TrEMBL record:
InterPro entries according to UniProt: GATase_2_dom (IPR017932), GFAT (IPR005855), GFAT_N (IPR047084), GlmS/AgaS_SIS (IPR035466), GlmS/FrlB_SIS (IPR035490), Ntn_hydrolases_N (IPR029055), SIS_dom (IPR001347), SIS_dom_sf (IPR046348)
A family per Pfam: SIS
Top-rank EC class of the record's enzyme: transferase
GO MF term list: carbohydrate derivative binding; glutamine-fructose-6-phosphate transaminase (isomerizing) activity
Active site residues of this protein: 2 (nucleophile), 599 (for fru-6p isomerization activity)
Keywords of this entry: Aminotransferase, Cytoplasm, Glutamine amidotransferase, Repeat, Transferase
Keyword Repeat: yes
EC assignment: 2.6.1.16
Domain Glutamine amidotransferase type-2: 2-217
Name assigned to this protein: Glutamine--fructose-6-phosphate aminotransferase [isomerizing]
Amino acid sequence: MCGIVGYIGRRDVAPLLLEGLQRLEYRGYDSAGVVISGKSGDLRTVKAKGRVRELESRIPKRFAGTTGIAHTRWATHGAPSDENAHPHLDTAGTVAVVHNGIIDNASELRAKLTADGVVFASETDTEVLAHLIGRSDAETLEKRVSEALRAVEGTYGIAVMHKEFPDRIVVARNGSPVVLGIGEKEMFVASDVAALVTHTRQVVTLGDGEMATLKADDFRTYTTEGSLTTATPTTVEWEAESYDMGGHDTYMHKEIVEQVEAVDRVLRGRIDDRFATVHLGGLNLDPGEARRVRRIKILGCGTSYHAGQIGAQLIEELARIPADAEPASEFRYRNPVVDPDTLYVAVSQSGETYDVLAAVQELKRKGARVLGIVNVVGSAIAREADGGTYVHAGPEVCVVSTKCFTNTVVAFALLALHLGRIRDLSVADGKRIIEGLRRLPGQIDEILKTEPEIKQLAKQYADARSMLFIGRVRGYPVAREASLKLKEVSYIHAEAYPASELKHGPLALIEPAMPTVAIVPDDDLLEKNRAALEEIKARSGRILAVAHQPQEKADHTIVVPKNEDELDPILMGIPLQLFAYHTALALGRDIDKPRNLAKSVTVE
Ligand code: M6R
């Protein structure tokens, strides 16, 4: 999705902005642009369709200034083009705006402004804001911006520069992330800490309805109505180096390999051997409240939703609380019954996915209690939730989620164990699960060592036009996530089905050109899963099994180490992340930035 970066200070601004934009490239974009306040005070703009390097090549030799804002655009209103790239200026060229989000009433405002004689230079919704601010004669830039924002409906994270107010950048947030970076006699702004951490780790995250004014040696935050708000900088835990590729060819590979440490991190300091339980400090749910929970509803999108499906099974198995997961994007549109005895859990890597955030806000409006299972500290969902737990996966840069999926499932296992131990789960089972959790990092390491074999298999299956993924009960969400991974990164069509449903339709698809990837854990459903393999083999289907022992009916088996039955899904997805990665590599795909996708979907 779109990215914003801005700077005000004493340093030459253009290289800083370009570096910031490069750090935001992973979010997905189709054009980029920059505006700086030149020596004469004029706003100087350069824009380019395509990559940041294209923008860089267009920056003139003399392009000096110490204040500027820049943007990577993901097209919503108007095709990717130089004209539609941000920043957008008003007609006189006095105001420049970069914007993430969508102005819902843009066409209405555009019609009004056009009737007043304004000529638009782009097809974007954002340009409306530039004209509204430019036409205001309020005394301060802050008032001009808030006046314009009162006229718009929709979501925004914006940064604004004005020729008459060269000592400041004004920013505002409603539904799209804005983070201030606090430096020594210099200030930064960005839509994502990734663009700031090489310069400062002191950050302030704006809340919805908040604005801020950045000057070189000062900043203040306030509401759109002008009342000051308190903003205490916090320190970003993630090191700048965690955003680098660290010797890998892609972030996806780096992040798959990092899972050994990532899982270790989510467990660290949380296990209580004495009571065979875990401590999750931020839940804000006392034992009495936890015992009164009658149902758990998990909401997330994409991979986080799949992690939530495994989470629901873990909660039912370990805590015996009825639980299910639903895509947040569906839930928020069906006027759901919000039940006071249900605990809602919102799951998100970024903590900024708009559909999840909107579902959380709707639930809170209706009085529900919402926990967040989130990766990005201080993100909107983490702030909006009543409590929750961070998954500590570290920054995930590749658009395709891998390590965060695994860590989220482990976080669910911790939540399930915690809830189980204050309800029915025995000490013996608590200990068994704890021992299983402790084995995970070593077992992930074992799986990663099979990469050369998985690479060979991926080459053999890369010619498939479509693949079927099947699993039963615990294996089904694993199959769904593996199918999503493959399609996202390799563009091979993939479909996931419960193995139990084969006879009810998908069996018709089976033929040699349609391989099946089957999740076959050594649990109480092993024989049932084997029967499904027989059915596929009888119809000349090719089978790749992920199992705890070689499967006779499969053409190939990736053997993974056995853990406790409940925890097996955590491990069984990992070889299929590598499988998706190597398939995409064999097909020459843009692995870290698959076509049409963005890292965090902060618009509807
Ligand atoms: O940041 P979130 O976890 O809320 O993102 C949700 C989905 O957009 C995300 O998981 C998406 O499906 C990824 N591309 C999966 O690889």
